[in-house]
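Aim 2, interim progress: modelling of the adenosine-5'-triphosphate-bound target.
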Amino acid sequence: MAEAALATRAPAAAGAALLSVRGLEAWYGESHVLHGISFDVGEGEVVTLLGRNGAGKTTTLKSIIGILQKRRGSIVFEGVETIRMPSRQIARLGIGYVPEERGIFSSLSVEENLFLPPQVRPGGLPVERIFELFPNLRERLSSQGTKLSGGEQQMLSIARILRTGARMLLLDEPTEGLAPVIVEQIGRTIAELKKQGFTIILVEQNFRFASTVADRHYVVEQGRVVDMILNSELDQNVDKLHAYLGV
Amino acid sequence: MTTILGVPTAALFGQLLLGLINGSFYAILSLGLAVIFGLLNIINFTHGAQYMMGAFVAWMLLNWAGLGYWWALLIAPIAVGITGVILERNLISQLASNDKIRSLLFVISAILTFLLCYVGIGWSEGTSLAAALLVGAVFGAVWAHVARERISTAEGHVDHLYGLLLTFGLALIIQGLFRNAYGSSGLPYQIPRELTGGQNFGFMFMPNYRGWVVVASLVVCLATWFVIEKTRLGAYLRAATENPTLTQAFGINVPRLVTITYGFGVGLAALAGVLAAPIYSVNPNMGADLIIVVFAVVVIGGMGSILGSIVTGFGLGLIEGLTKVFYPEASSTVIFIIMAIVLLIKPAGLFGRAA
Ligand SMILES: Nc1ncnc2c1ncn2[C@@H]1O[C@H](COP(=O)(O)OP(=O)(O)OP(=O)(O)O)[C@@H](O)[C@H]1O
Ligand SMILES: [Mg+2]
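Predicted structure of the complex, ligand included:
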């Protein structure tokens, strides 16, 4: 089957994948949105999900973290089947989620936002390291969370899950609507996190940005994974990708 | 005789003190409602009954177990809080569940146990009710464990209306049981020996117990505010109130927070009941009478606002007291008049954030 072939082409799939998604289907109420998503992510990889608006990228991340409860298929993380788990249990396996809307709490200060997610594993980044990555946050600790600029909110949203010890990060369009300097900073951060051994699934519209940080790209179309492109082969596949993304 | 605006100062301060005392109860009760509403998004109509239960538990502790006021202050909120936890787990939270068997099992086993204890063995209503809740809770918990694979609590909040009907029905059942057992005439409860007597300030006389009620209520309210606004647990609560789904996605057990919060809010009501026992007599209707005013306080303060419920509670108590001095005819309606005005001008309440 084509999906299986896509997955085995993944270099990381040679060993056991850290995360392995098979035949994932998901619903919002009665509306069937994912129709069998399959892909693998190896330990330490940065993998993107690319696709047009409404393709199902966000829904895929929500299904992995378990926010979307009406889902079927298989999602195995570190050998553990999570498809029936509530999100709080999945998070505790060591998956950190950065939602598309950033999810900064307005009733919490920046500091409270930063320290909200509980430690799920040992070995999270120390706060000092986090302030090195995002120096802006240090000065704003006592502000209300949503008083931060969009870029700062994005940094806070990433920062707070780095503390928890989660080794797999789900980032949903972290560059959306941000100024080029901020996008650059977030790119450097992702590169740095990769160097530190984090495994990342990155949802992106901006594939030029994606190509600067990712190892592989999965193309999502109408609730299915339709292609996988290695970053090293991106140049040969630009036309194909443009067709997929409709740019 | 000294007067202010033609009113004798002693009368004025006497009414202000009375207002402050009523305000103390308004504040604790509306605070409990606000805490519960914030996280559960339901208006807890059982609140008045739970306040009454607090007073009755104090009475039972004294008359059945010889445990006095100070023990009651500790034990009654915990005991009534536990009944709240049982109701939340087995009924209120189940409104949002796809599995109705747990509530059904809970209700049926509780009713059968009650009949067995009350009619069969001949225990009192109170004891039979406690036994019924415990047995129901055990059945509910066993079922939840057996069926945990199949149960999913739906995302989002329960429809207001269902929560309202459920908690209102529970209030009627609880009040009915207590009326049946203890009549409506009320049971006496003595002021603890340490707090009898009073202070003469010259311009007014203040009974010690009343002073204690005001101070105790202030301390409890401020402590609650502090926990919610300044601690890590409070940050969890605020986060879960604002966005339960995302809070859960960080690994925080939101259903457990909800249960704890409901138990705590109910415990606050029971604490108010114990404080009230020596002032008003212990009466099955005491909650039903008070809670209507408290709902008005909540509406004025703003649904779910913590600080709002405290300030409005004390403030409205004082305004009510002043009305008694200057225009006694309006004293029982002034709060509702204010409520109507606030609803017209600022529908979200004085301290509420517009939705
Ligand atoms: N809460 C919801 N209720 C119902 N349908 C939804 C909901 N959220 C998304 N959808 C639908 O599900 C489909 C997939 O949406 P999803 O948000 O996963 O897309 P996406 O790939 O993340 O798009 P974008 O690039 O715009 O963020 C779309 O058709 C969308 O309209
Ligand atoms: Mg999206």
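Chain A touches chain B at residues 65-67, 69, 84, 86-92, 97, 99, 103, 105-108, 112, 115-118, 120, 161, 164 (CB under 8 Å). Residues 180-195 of chain A form the longest helix (16 residues).
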